[in-house]
Design goal:
four-stranded mixed beta sheet; six-stranded mixed β-barrel
């Protein structure tokens, strides 16, 4: 956090705008064919500053950005880290060499506990595919994988699988691979299973089932035992293994039952790391790696494949929560699409838009002998011109929810010793049809409204002039912005003085925009999925959203520049700010004054609360809300492919998804964030049973609990020692459009970028 006057600094070199890149202090867009060049140039720049040996190759591309990054790295040796996002071994070797020159090995790079995750071997998998196609494989068991769908087209896995004499799938779902197998023997879900893992050296983990199996499934380890002529249950097999292999490695002698019970309770068992890793040194041939990074012809376009935050590699694409979660960058739901730079779309004569404002042009992509289905095109600010971006994880042909949503991008992956996620010399052809996408955000810049989002540089922040980066906003009147004291249409809430005043703070510097909070809110509060068509109508039911704002260098008088709406023209390489937005629980709440039946009222603890069975659906409150965070329930939704009128609480499996502490709302009522009032009540009751006051941190909302960066803090403003109250005293604290005078109970912390003011 910048409050100490210091911050880490993040440089990003990438092709398309990613969640990581959007949070960078310095971001540079590059072509995929230049990843190797960037690695060589950065390596040589660092080598020159640290007096190490340079490698051959490289050029002057991106010299200014690379030299800046190298200077910052060299001045922070042992406290820096260079990470490689490419699957190219030669680039990884160069990146490891940079970390070695920066003395990061043993400090920011842990060499004592090497990771054992992701140890698959692409070359071995290609060899298997070749042997299958040659008819050399008689039996194949696919253990919870879907290679028919996920492997490059060059592997020809599907045709090879047809030549296998006996094939089995243990997938939980009837996926593309399972459909081609002779038998599907579904494994237990991981929450129904016993298991163990060795994620890194010296650390072991035990998992135990949280629920009994819902269906007639069997854990894979039990199936293997039975197929081998045994009869061991998973519990017995794992317990036996630990007794024979781990008991002797502990520091003190105890009976195995005691050791086992303690390990199961903790879930983790640690031993000293293997000595063979303590002397790990960097010994790779860097010159050979650099010489292996010869330049590649870019052709017409270059294609890069990526994973969305919600859908990932597609193994959970059948989960409608994830399909309806807006992509953090594009804010589009329910589809994948090709992203392009606006300049490229203009050159092709396409509609330039950022989501659902217009119909999308459709194209087909050709790379070698792989030709895609028609895919919609979307403009993506920050993307390198001459490139196409396409998300993996879509295009399933077998699943109920994910079937026919998007296009499968895996055939475009290549193989060069390892699976690659870039394609060069790609051509596009326009399709005659048009396509409608479903986005949840239509305003992409703040249009000069400084009271919505505030940001500054570390240099400005360290000067301590609060008015420069976080000015005090006075109440708006008909005469403009004018300080008005003691005049309000609302009576002050005196009850706060004796009780709680619940609220929340959100640090814009820590929020990455990932969307974990949105999905957590879905799960906690029984929020219905509405489907793509309703999202397109603006009827999504999310109780909270994450607004993503682009910076812009367009003049306010410009209109429809490059096809964008008036005053909505992002810069070609914009900076990005993410802002979680939910009901602000205003003390002067505009929604409360317009409800004709008093369905929305103010609690004695500062919460704006809804009485669902009193709401008659006039939607006056939604129209009067300046934050647009209230949701009208149009239908009785259920999460299935047709979204028919059906109450999930009456379905046995649907009921298991619901939180019993929260009602399932009927159609025709208004919904919004309740600050997880059910959790507040539980926390108060627990404190009452203990005979103590509610301790700070004892109650947390679903969004705050799920936030991986702890950007959201929930608490009691009346507890002056609470983290929330302290955040409210920070010079970075502000309220969104506070000049309206709503006096909300949600405060935000100004975003600070670690870059000099002259760079902004």
């Amino acid at each position: 956090k910048p409050d100490s006057g210091k911050m880490s600094k993040h440089f990003q070199f990438e092709t398309g705008l990613s969640v990581t890149g959007s949070n960078a202090d310095h971001r540079t867009a590059v072509l995929p064919s230049e990843y190797g060049t960037v690695a060589i140039n950065l390596h040589n720049a660092v080598a020159g500053l640290t007096r190490n040996q340079k490698v051959s190759g490289g050029n002057d591309s991106y010299a200014s950005a690379i030299n800046h990054a190298a200077e910052e790295l060299a001045s922070n040796q042992g406290k820096s880290l260079v990470v490689c996002g490419s699957n190219n071994k030669n680039i990884q070797v160069l990146v490891n060499s940079i970390n070695h020159m920066l003395k990061n090995y043993g400090s920011t790079v842990d060499i004592d506990h090497p990771s054992y995750l992701r140890k698959g071997n692409d070359a071995d998998l290609k060899m298997l595919a070749d042997e299958m196609n040659a008819g050399k494989v008689d039996v194949l068991i696919n253990c919870n994988v879907n290679p028919v769908w996920t492997l490059p087209s060059s592997f020809a896995f599907a045709s090879g699988l047809e030549k296998v004499g006996f094939k089995v799938s243990t997938s939980l779902y009837r996926d593309e691979t399972a459909q081609m197998c002779d038998f599907t023997c579904p494994d237990n879900h991981y929450l129904e299973s016993w298991g163990d893992a060795n994620p890194c050296d010296g650390k072991y983990a035990l998992t135990q089932p949280a629920i009994s199996p819902l269906y007639n499934t069997r854990q894979l380890i039990e199936s293997i035992s039975i197929w081998s002529g045994g009869s061991d249950k998973a519990y017995d097999s794992i317990r036996k293994f630990w007794n024979e292999n781990l008991l002797g490695k502990q520091s003190e002698s105890v009976f195995f039952d005691q050791f086992w019970n303690k390990s199961v309770e903790k879930g983790v068992f640690e031993i000293a790391g293997s000595e063979e890793h303590e002397a790990l040194e960097f010994t790779a041939d860097v010159s050979a790696a650099a010489s292996g990074l010869s330049g590649k012809s870019s052709g017409t376009y270059e294609l890069f494949l990526y994973q969305k935050t919600g859908i990932g590699d597609g193994r959970h694409a059948n989960n409608p929560w994830l399909q309806e979660l807006p992509d953090p960058i594009t804010k589009i739901t329910w589809d994948n699409y090709v992203t392009m730079a606006a300049s490229d779309m203009i050159a092709l004569g396409f509609n330039v838009h950022l989501g659902q404002e217009q119909e999308s042009n459709m194209i087909t992509i050709t790379s070698g002998d792989v030709v895609s289905e028609s895919i919609p095109v979307v403009a993506q600010p920050g993307q390198m011109p001459g490139t196409l971006g396409l998300a993996l994880g879509y295009g399933h042909k077998a699943w109920k929810i994910a079937e026919k949503i998007g296009v499968n991008a895996y055939p475009f992956t290549g193989f060069d010793g390892t699976v690659t996620y870039e394609a060069f010399g790609v051509t596009v052809a326009e399709s005659p049809e048009k396509f409608n996408l479903a986005a949840t955000q239509t305003s992409h810049t703040i249009m000069g409204r400084d009271s919505v989002v505030r940001e500054t540089t570390l240099e400005t922040f360290n000067k301590g002039n609060r008015e420069e980066y976080n000015p005090v906003v006075t109440l708006a009147t008909h005469e403009g912005l004018k300080a008005v004291k003691g005049i309000t249409l609302w009576e002050e809430h005196k009850e706060y003085e004796m009780g709680h005043l619940w609220g929340m703070s959100i640090d814009l510097n820590t929020c990455t925009g990932c969307g974990s909070c949105v999905t957590a809110c879905f799960s906690e509060n029984n929020i219905p999925i509405v489907g793509k068509d309703e999202v397109r109508r603006g009827r999504e039911m999310h109780w909270m959203r994450i607004d993503r704002y682009y910076s812009t260098d367009a003049n306010e008088s410009d209109s429809s520049i490059g096809g964008y709406r008036e005053r909505e023209n992002p810069g070609a390489m914009p900076e990005v700010v993410f802002q979680p937005m939910m009901c602000q629980h205003c003390n002067n709440a505009p929604c409360e004054t317009v409800c004709p039946v008093a369905a929305t009222t103010h609690s004695s603890e500062g919460l704006n609360q809804m009485t669902y069975n009193r709401c008659i659906g006039t939607r006056y409150c939604a129209n009067n809300c300046p934050y647009k965070v209230r949701r009208f329930n149009w239908f009785n939704y259920i999460a299935d492919s047709k979204f028919t009128s059906h109450n999930p609480s009456q379905d046995d499996l649907g009921r298991m998804v619901l939180n019993p502490d929260v009602t399932v709302r009927a159609r025709g009522v208004m919904e919004k964030c309740s600050m997880c009032v059910q959790r507040i009540q539980t926390g108060k009751l627990e404190a009452k049973k203990k005979g103590t006051a509610v301790e700070d941190g004892a109650i947390s909302t679903a969004c705050a609990s799920a936030c991986p960066t702890n950007a959201i803090t929930f608490g009691d403003f009346n507890d002056k020692k609470s983290a929330l109250a302290q955040n409210g005293l920070s010079d970075r604290a502000f309220r969104v459009i506070e000049d309206v005078g709503t006096k909300s109970n949600v405060i935000y912390m100004t975003k600070v970028r670690n870059k000099e003011k002259t760079e902004a």
